[in-house]
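step: validate -> pass
step: tokenize input -> pass
step: predict -> running
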Amino acid sequence: MPDYPRPDFQRPDLNWTSLDGAWDFLFDDADHGLTQGWHHQGLPAQTDTHPRGRIQVPYAFQTPALGIGLHEAHEVLWYERPLTDIRTAAEQARGHRLVLRFGAVDYECTVWVDGQRVGGHRGGHVPFDLDVSDAFRSEGPPATRRLTLRVRDSPYDLSQPRGKQYWGPVPDSIFYTPTSGIWQSVWLESLPRMRLGGSSEGTVLRSDDIAGGHLHARVAVLGRPAGTKPQVEVEARLGGVLVSRGRQHLVSDRDWASVDVDMRVSDPTPLQVRDAAWKGGVALWAPEHPVLYDLTLRLCDESGGLVDTVESTTGMRRISWTRGDGTFRLNGKPCFQTLVLDQGYWPETGLTPPSQAALRADIEMAQRMGLNGCRKHQKVEDPVFHYWADRLGFLVWGEIANGYAFGDDYIDRFNSEWTEAVRRDLNHPCIVAWTPFNESWGYPSLKDNVDQRNHIRAVYYLTKTLDPTRPINDNCGWEHVCTDLTTYHDYSDSIELASSCADLERGILGKKSDRDMFVGPVAQDAGSRHAPGAPVICSEFGGVNIVPAKGTAAGDRDWGYTTASDPEDLLARLDRLVMGIVQGGHTCGLVYTQLCDIEQEVNGLYSYDRKEKVPADRVKALMDAAHRFYHERVAPKEGAV
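step: predict -> pass
step: emit ->
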């Protein structure tokens, strides 16, 4: 597997270097660093309360992994390390730029090189890039500069999108140890001045036209000299065999080109694509056959000279969820989603995966239990996760961290970060739904507050503008305002859950946690507030823990929503819960809480250290039974839901 942090958009001749590893680190509890000029002079050896130390990036100071491991509140953090110009003499002669990339820094940061401010960013779960070329103007051999970061991450600001990160000193209930500062990889690249932009810069690979058989690519170009008309080419291969190419010159007033590529194959026989499903000559992507086309994007100057090349992939697939039908379809066929709530935490590293391989391992763990996807909960996961989900055929609901205090600050913060998250991930075929909000977190008065409802409605249309190809689950669980999916959360035990799931109007659409399922005119275009015919999905249920054995350290803080006596009881409960949902006849997908135990919340199918709590093959057997029941008994009736 490539170790480059963005393997979904990679240059074959990329000159890059990782900046992960040991950095100087200092708490600035008195917030003196700016006034004392630490960015100009370097971090001091000591403040009034803390000595300068070392930290292993990208692990947060709250985690034990090769770092500091403190459960303490520190709002202002400083990082520092050397930064060396990696450009070769030939690259410098061609005008290559030096770009500093951050996977994610929680929450707000400013960046300096040798005391010169080179930029900053706000938003704790999304990437950002900074061009640091001008800080290396001196001639001669590669120069070394001092890279300095100041990070502010309030432990208490509830208008800051924080997800499951707790605002108290000790994790509690369903909230976990917070993550402050750099928590995803940092790296440096040498890039052409004029170059292809990634998805965050506006490149969109729209791959849902399986009827027409075309990939519709909108390819962004960065650094185009004014008045020039470079050419973009997109080449598609399948199984190593060329399918077709599309080319387009930029017009003078645009920094992007629209390129259509014919993805149809006249004779699939020589391609040797394993388990492919075909429609009109197009190889389709689905969990059962995650076939990817290899893409090569090329940028040429006006004279035809090659300037930049990027390699990527795409999966041709279409999602449909038309109201009045009640069916979630993938490639025109009913798709029953057996998903798992995946929070993306690890014992030693918190939100940061301990390795790239750990991301693949979590997907394979879920698949061994017959789960065909996940709702990635309150987190924008590392891009390597989506890289593997594309290749392994794992469905993903894209989500983001919510805040807990509604207001103008939150609106501004959320809109910016959500937009960046959607743009980062929208080219992945594995993503099949967007979930911007969860259980009215940050919206305590949706029923009575039009401003709160209007923001959720505005985010729905913002998301639809960014990506019209996927359904939007506006406010997961209840109090839907404007939605494509009717999702509900129900942690009842099996008998009560089965009864509720059998009654659409009074059960599924009844109050949840004393909240209405819909607020305001949910479906104005359909003339109904109940969005009739929208796919109904139980997007949280279960959460069953096993009672701790006598004499163990587990005690008052270890909990689940309901408790099993032993692994056999957990399996029996899981069977009754899953079949209770699907046998009700109204639900076309489910999300079990949760994949792994996390700190004090011990209701995972796996322990926190990724050990089976129940046999994976037995869980798979009952999930397979749910699939069979749905496709044999429920899917044909969905038109009446």
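step: describe -> The radius of gyration is 25 Å.
step: cleanup -> pass
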